[in-house]
Amino acid sequence: MIAMLRTTRHLLELIRFSHTLFALPLALLAAVMAWRLTTFRPQDLVGILLCVVTARSFAMAMNRLADRRLDAANPRTAGRHLPAGILSLTQVTAFAVLCALGFIASTLMFLPSRLPLYLSVPVLAFLAGYSYTKRFTSLAHFWLGTALALSPVAAWIAIRGEQVLANPADFLPAIVLGGAVLTWVAGFDMIYACQDYDADRKAKLRSVPVKFGIPGALRLAAGCHLLTVVLLACLPFVYPFFGWIYWAGVAAVAVLLVYEHLLVRPDDLSRVNAAFFYVNAVISIGLFAVGTLDLMVGGGGY
Known about the structure:
Blueprint: H1 2-14, H2 24-35, H3 42-66, H4 68-73, H5 89-106, H6 115-133, H7 140-160, H8 163-166, H9 172-193, H10 197-202, H11 208-238, H12 244-263, H13 272-298
């Protein structure tokens, strides 16, 4: 039992379970937005929670499996669980398979809609594909952004079901919110990748910092985050239930993104982790909180 608990703890550390904070609140925001248009079902909420946790855990485990040799050669990541021998290849592979099966099974919570079930395997394939993208394209950051953008998009599909096929305009709010998540994640992933500039060049990997240098990567990340704020500002025009509380939240996100970029300079990357985790966790949780509050109070309730 002690060995099992230790292995579980190591697996949660491997996938950085706490970083689920980036994807889950925005999936829940999309769900709350969708429930404004349809009937709330408790099983849908449970399904979204299970799907986000299992999908992200699968994606992180696949990333660690794919990058285990690269991690071993990088001083910053050599202490991770696979290269350090804390977890075995078999253990992490089994964990990834269990998470994939758990994700597919979780989509059954959304019956009678079968769309989530039909899309589950393609989603898993897309998530797994990210782990190999930096071997052939500098656009890997945007692949990661799209992977996390699937959280709100998939939550919307899960709640709205076949309605998104019958009326494509119904899908616009999810697309705009997903676009904001895509540019937000791609931007902060470029910032995070600046730490591995030397290791990535040595390993002949592709990234925006390798292609454009660290100063260029930080400028492009700032451009992505500017687009994030623009897309968040566009959301009320395709989803007219938001009011002044949401707009205050968008303003706060803009301020936090500016602060994030002030934390990191081309000649000083010591505060990248603070920019990466703390600021972005506040953005994700805060946007969910103000959006939900607006819909429940300012937006007229359910």
